[in-house]
Design brief:
heterodimer, A: 224 residues, mainly alpha, B: 240 residues, alpha/beta, Rossmann fold, four-stranded antiparallel sheet, 10 strands, 35% helix
Chain lengths: 224, 240
């Protein structure tokens, strides 16, 4: 357990330092997210009556498509100079490599989402500053990052990863997108924990299954 | 780390196929402790594939490999602690400094007192002066030397070098030569190269890979460079 924590901490630290210097992932997620929000803001004539209905969908469309952009590039960084071979040549288990990549992905996606939330609130005049909404965002982002990291490793080895990644990722995350959109909508309209806990349960079960499955199958994605 | 009794590397009937094409076909070889073996062969003969399989980066289609007495597929984690690998790729993160790269890899290998070990290796490879530069601002030769440091940081008893002399400057070449010469008798080295002069001068044994197998292996002291060049031509059909 101590080895796992040390290995994961080392690899996440490396990802954070590299990201802090090149700013590729967070910048691309954030830029794309802001563009989507601005386009929605201009394209839809949102009256106060329908804004509460549409806001959760707009929010999660923004998160999923901007997140996809970051996920597609996740292992590209490791292909430059073939550093993925450096990782594979170390005595670190493949599961630890997966866990560290999933944590880094979660952090980069979550940081971008935290920056997007105030902008969303300003553009659509809908407050998202609610602990329940934050809990839903954190849990859903864990699901995105855990299964997204796995699919990103597969898509990186294909010639058309920009097409392959959404084709693999989007159908699988549909259940948690539905759960996230519905529970966000309920909270925005004044609902509480009792109204959303079944949806949150679904997201948690998805997170657990996707982490376990990805850890078990990750080694196969790295095979030649 | 070195287990008594077993050879450094033992390869038995190694085959690697891509679809219906066999790159390696029943390759067998034994490398003893402290030997430096250079493997020559034309492009596409399977030299890099052999190094990749020995390094546990690629699985064999069939056959067995024991490294330090350990089955390399079954005990790949332990095998990785015993080997240092240099390939065409530097395996360095461009946005990190040389020191940060070495700290990163050193920590993954759980090296005790990693900072002191980095100082030792840096001094031996003469890289201390540019260790704090970001890798993406370094010259190719500098990167190669940092990559060399990365490969020996955990003090592996076995080094696998895939064309380590490709595209490097004279300083890096001298350092590589010194490392290989100083390793003789202490560290086992398997190296692939196209440069017959360099490979011949550094090695205790020389081998040729052709048709997916080791077709020639000799003590380097039993031949002159010119004799070996002639042998190379007759075994591969090409001049180097």
């Amino acid at each position: 357990m101590r080895t796992l924590l040390k290995d994961v901490k080392t690899m996440v630290w490396k990802d954070i330092v590299a990201e802090a210097r090149n700013k590729e992932m967070v910048t691309s997620i954030l830029t794309f997210a802001i563009l989507i929000l601005v386009i929605f803001n201009f394209a839809l004539r949102l009256t106060p009556q329908i804004i509460l209905e549409l806001a959760p969908g707009i929010l999660w469309i923004t998160f999923i498509f901007s997140g996809l952009l970051g996920l597609t590039r996740l292992f590209v960084v490791e292909q430059e100079n073939n550093t993925i071979h450096g990782l594979l040549l170390s005595p670190v288990s493949r599961e630890n490599i997966y866990v560290s990549k999933a944590i880094s992905t979660f952090l980069f996606m979550f940081v971008s989402e935290i920056i997007v939330i105030p902008l969303f609130s300003i553009l659509f005049n809908v407050s998202l500053f609610n602990l329940l909404i934050f809990a839903v965002i954190i849990l859903t982002t864990i699901g995105f990052a855990s299964i997204g990291t796995f699919f990103s490793a597969i898509a990186t080895n294909t010639k058309s990863r920009e097409i392959m990644m959404p084709m693999l990722f989007v159908p699988i995350v549909v259940p948690i997108i539905i759960a996230a959109v519905i529970s966000t909508g309920i909270v925005i309209q004044g609902g509480g924990w009792d109204d959303i806990y079944k949806w949150v349960q679904l997201i948690v079960v998805f997170d657990i299954l996707s982490v376990v499955f990805s850890m078990l199958a990750f080694e196969q994605t790295l095979q030649e | 780390m070195q287990s008594s009794g077993s050879p450094a590397i033992q390869i038995d009937g190694l085959t690697k196929s891509y679809g219906t094409y066999d790159v390696l076909h029943g390759l067998s070889m034994l490398v003893n402790w402290g030997e430096v073996v250079s493997i020559f062969g034309p492009n596409g003969s399977g030299k890099s594939t052999l190094i990749k399989i020995l390094a546990t980066l690629s699985p064999a289609s069939s056959g067995k490999i024991w490294i330090n007495g350990l089955d390399s597929q079954e005990y790949s984690h332990h095998v990785r602690r015993n080997i240092g690998v240099i390939t065409h790729d530097m395996m360095l993160y461009g946005h990190l400094t040389g020191l940060e790269n070495l700290l990163f890899y050193g920590t993954l290998f759980h090296i005790q007192n990693v900072e002191r070990r980095i100082i030792e290796v840096s001094e031996s490879l003469n890289i201390s002066s540019f260790l704090n530069k970001r890798v993406d601002t370094m010259s190719h030769g500098m990167r190669k030397r940092i990559s060399l440091a990365r490969s020996i940081l955990h003090d592996p008893p076995i080094l696998l070098l895939d064309e380590p002399d490709a595209g490097i400057d004279q300083i890096a070449l001298d350092i590589l030569g010194n490392l290989t010469m100083s390793s003789k008798g202490k560290r086992t080295i398997v190296m692939t190269t196209h440069n017959i002069e360099i490979g011949f001068s550094l090695s205790s044994r020389i081998a040729i890979i052709s048709n997916g197998a080791i077709s020639y292996i000799q003590e380097s002291s039993s031949k002159t460079v010119d004799e070996f060049k002639s042998d190379y031509k007759s075994f591969t059909g090409v001049t180097n």
